Amino acid sequence: MSALADRLQEIKAAPSGKQVCAFFDYDGTLLDGFSAVAILRARLRSLEFTGAELLDGLMIALRGCSSEQDYAEVLEATRPAFAGKTYAELLAMGEKLFKEDTASKLRPQMWQVIRAHRAKGHRIVIASSATRFQIEPIAKQIDADHALATDVEVIDGVVTGRILGRPLWGPGKAAAVRRLAAEHDLDLASSFAYSDGNEDVPYLESVGHPAAISPQSGLRAVAEARGWPILELRNPSHSALSMIARTSAFYGSFLGGAAVGIAKGLMGGEDSTAAMQDAVASGIDTGFALAGVSVDVLDGREHLEKARPCVFVFNHQSKLDLPVMIHLVRDHATGVAKKEIRSVPLFGQILQIGGVAFIDRADAGKAIEQLEPVVQKIQEEGLSLVVAPEGTRSATPRIGPFKKGPFHIAMQAGVPIVPVVMRNAGELMWRGAQLIKPGTVEVRVLPPVDTSDWVPEKAGEYAEQVREQFLDALADWPVTAFDDGRMTRTMGVFEWKESAGD
Question: How far is residue 336's CA from residue 406's CA, in Å, rounded to a whole number?
Answer without folding.
Answer: 10
